[in-house]
Amino acid sequence: MTYKCVFSDIDGTLLNSKHQISEKTKKKVQQLAIQNIPFVLVSARMPKGMHYFLDELQIKAPMVSYSGGLILDENQKVIYSKGFSVEMAKRLYKYIKYYYQIPVSFYVENHWMVDEIDEGIEEESIITGLKPEKLDLNGVKKVHKLLVIAEAGIVDRLEMSLKEKFSGLKIYKSKDTYLEIMDESVSKSSAIQFLCDKMKIGLHQTVSFGDNYNDLDMLLLTGKGFAMANGAQGVLESIPTYTLSNDEDGIVYALDNLVGE
After folding, report:
1. Contact between 143 and 58 (Cβ < 8 Å)
2. What are the chain's domains?
């Protein structure tokens, strides 16, 4: 196939297990830029946690944050934004604190706010290179994402209870210990459709890469969707095509050897 755009998840996909982009991958992405093929980052991260990678790759391209909740153009201007009401966020927060007594992260545009800091928050800060702000919802009208970091068993129970009690939300695990909450209409696939329409690129001319369950809809939508070999078992079982792991330059391998198959 001849592809005109590449969409890539960040953690576990673009980044290796040391949370770095390999030199081989950087070189490949820069070659795409020379050919005017956009390399679009698609992540659950906030924009501030993604800008660094665009700079490191030395490219100018659109970017999808919050798994589709916030889309920025190649000049990093917001062109799409979808969140849930701050009233809903407060209801969720009250419920989580009452029954589980664990920290809750609020993501509003380019702000990460927390009510308290524990080991999970500290680890997320190290991984993303960002410092959380003190929770302050004054003037906030909508929230792009809530994140809860806790032990796997707690996350499992919380996911079940929130899905039973609240509607209109997308509630899913991005890791065994991470529970993400967004508006139900938000998805990576809808963001890709939005960008393809804007760039006038057919979906059959796109390639995507991902490793986790929140990447599934994206991998199934694009012309070719590649699961990373290090991906979650359910993802590998659902996606017919997969490439090498994130520690083996899986993106480069697929673009060089598999896309044309």
Report:
1. no
2. 5-81+186-257 (3.40.50.1000), 84-183 (3.30.1240.10)
Handedness of CA 163, 169, 170, 176 (dihedral sign): negative
Direct distance between the N- and C-terminal alpha carbons of the chain, in angstroms, rounded to an integer: 7
pLDDT for the residue numbered 260:
73
Tokens found for residue 193: 């459709």
Residues 142-169 have pLDDT tens digits of 999 999 999 999 999 999 999 999 999 9
Residues above pLDDT 70, as percent of the chain:
99
- For the chain, strand residue ranges (E) read 5-8, 39-42, 63-65, 70-72, 78-81, 84-85, 105-108, 111-114, 133-134, 142-143, 145-149, 169-175, 178-183, 206-210, 224-228, 242-243
Alpha-carbon gap, residue 47 to 51, rounded angstroms:
6
**Integer angstrom CA distances of residue 249 from 20, 25, 125, 245:** 11, 6, 25, 7
Tokens for 100? Answer: 């589980």
Helices 86-100 and 152-165 pack at an angle, to 10 degrees, of 130
Residues in the chain: 261
Residue 56, token pair as written in the block: 């490191």
The phi and psi torsions of 80 (rounded to 5 degrees) equal: -160, 135
Which pLDDT belongs to residue 261? 56
In sequence order, which ranges of 19-66 are alpha helices (DSSP H)?
23-34, 51-57
Please, what sign has the CA dihedral across residues 91, 150, 144, 165? Answer: negative
Work out whether strand 178-183 and strand 206-210 pair parallel, antiparallel, or are unpaired: unpaired
Q: How far is Cα 70 from Cα 171, in angstroms, rounded to an integer?
A: 17
